[in-house]
Amino acid sequence: MNFDRVVIDELTLNINPLQTAGRASAEVRKAAGRYTDGYSVCDRCAGVLHDIEKPDIKSFTAELAEFLGVDRAAVTMGAREGKFAVIHTVAKPGDTIILDGNAHYSTMVAAQRAGVEIMKTHYTEPPEFKILPESFAEALDRCKTETGKPAALAVLTHVDGSYGNLTDAKAIAGICHDAGVPVLLNGAYSAGRMPVNARELGVDFLVGSGHKSFGATGPVGVMGAVGEWAERLFRLSPTNRNKNIELLGCTARGSNVVALMAALPGVKKRVLNWDNEVAKARKFIDAMEALGDISLIGERPKNHDLIRLETPLFYRIGENHRKRGYYLHSELSERGITGLIPGQTKWFKMSTFGFSDAQLDYIIDAFRDIAESAREF
Amino acid sequence: MDTCITNSKSTPVKIQRARSGKIPRRRQVVDKQVKQRNMQRVDDTFRVMDIMEDVRDIWRESAPLQELDEQQKTKLLKKLSKAKKAIERIEATL
Fold it and tell me: Peptide bond preceding A127: is omega within 30 degrees of 0, i.e. cis?
């Protein structure tokens, strides 16, 4: 069997937004490489993953809680597992929870697995598709009117994966709390990339993705809760008194948790560089729009590295090209850039996260070159 | 007749004489020098792997053209030299 990857980050610039903030550093790969044997973190385990001191998962968990601004944190297998754990803790089957209109499908299946009903907020008109705080107020009211009960929970996607829109978590949390509804913030695309502090934002729960936004080997995620909710989320089994119910006892227990541990120091530094990441995204958008017939979909000004562009320019070129819509992916590949979906030219999503200024300029030049040479053709 | 010896953690361990009744069965322990050699081999193996991860980062930072500036070249050559030395040390133990 051949395990070579299709995309090799040593050879190409991978602009897929799923990948850019998940690239593991050398330090992370070195640490993870020492724990590739099955239960290798459990050599000195006394029964609780988060209490293991060799490797020091115990201290790491405390450090993670401080970093996320929660009273208690835990490592999970990913953001979706965290969402399920929170929903399962807070809502009973048959309850209704509010999701923002840009919620990821994994939020919906987490809710469905927990047996709860879903009600979504509205978003603004195209091309921005923004989730405004007032949309939560409306959805909370709608829930009460239609079901006769308040929502059990509000789940807010901090930054969505379709448009890269950054929501006003603080304002939305305030609205939900005024209605007596706890808030779970899905930070899969924010925590680890940008500063995110649950306490400062006023949310009750926070989940994040280690493999998407902490540069860690997956599957791995983070989950935390504030105040009394922490006690409920991390409740113990009545039969196995040191085992967390929602964590099914233990979660990530191999190279993935070690990778997350090794990633945290770098993540703490990189979130301080967030303004620069946003500036790079805006620079890229300006350069692309200057080509003509390309426009940003999502909020403006841009506040995140995930960029969705509508690109009729590339679509038109593809109509007359011998490779049809596949030409764009092919042309980029020839220039050492990858990450777009082959065949996609009407619109695409990409990310500028983590690239050096020189690499970003190279990407901009590549798109410009493709657009201009095709115009001549 | 029983013979009492201690293991590495100084816990008394009872062993019985071999069936012949003369030669006591010896605990199998790793000789100190062998242990040191093995540790050195494994340390060097990890050292090489770690260095190669640093090399991967140099490729990633300079992708896709990998046109290295003088600083990157010096760094890379230093890394490769260290890796070579570690590999030579492993070979020398064979």
Answer: yes
Whether residue A219 has a cis bond before it, omega within 30° of 0: yes
Instruction: List chain B residues with CB under 8 Å of A362.
Output: 64-65
Per-residue confidence (pLDDT) for residue A374, from 0 to 100? 74
Both tokens assigned to B68: 């290295």
- Convert the pLDDT of each residue in A21-74 to its tens digit: 999 999 999 999 999 999 999 999 999 999 999 999 999 999 999 999 999 999
- Torsion angle (degrees, nearest 10) of CA B43, B44, B48, B54: 50
Give the one of A25, A34, A336 whose C-beta lies nearest to B63's C-beta. Answer: A336
| Cβ contact A337–B65 (<8 Å) | no
- Residue recorded with tokens 């929970």: A153
* A96-99 and A117-120 strand pairing: parallel
Minimum-distance CB partner of B60 among A10, A30, A33: A10
Q: What pLDDT, in 10s, does the model give residues A129-162?
A: 999 999 999 999 999 999 999 999 999 999 999 9
Q: What's the rounded Cα separation, in Å, for the pair B22 and B28?
A: 18
Q: Please report how many Cα atoms fall inside a 13 Å half-sphere around the Cα of residue A301, on the Cβ side.
A: 10
Task: Test B61 with A25 for CB contact under 8 angstroms.
Answer: no
Q: How many CB atoms lie within 10 A of CB A282?
A: 17
Selecting from B53, B54, B63 the residue whose C-beta is nearest the C-beta of A13 gives B63
φ, ψ of residue A370 in degrees (nearest 5): -65, -45
- In whole angstroms, give the CA distance from residue A126 to residue A347: 14
* Share of chain A residues as helix, strand and coil, in percent rounded to the nearest 5: 45, 15, 40
Contact A164, A306 (CB under 8 A): yes
Within 8 A by CB and 6+ apart from A183, the residues are: A153, A154, A155, A156, A169, A172, A173, A176, A177, A202, A203, A204, A205
The answer to whether A365 touches A33, Cβ cutoff 8 Å, is: no
Nearest to A70 by CA among A219, A196, A175, A177: A196
Complex ipTM over 0.90:
yes
- How far is A352 from A283, CA to CA, in rounded Å? 10
What is the reported pLDDT for B21?
65
Q: What is the pLDDT of residue A102?
A: 98
Question: To which residue do tokens 């789940």 refer?
Answer: A155
Place of tokens 């792997």: B49
The residue ranges of chain A whose pLDDT is under 50 are: none
Band (pLDDT 50/70/90 cuts) for residue B19 is: low
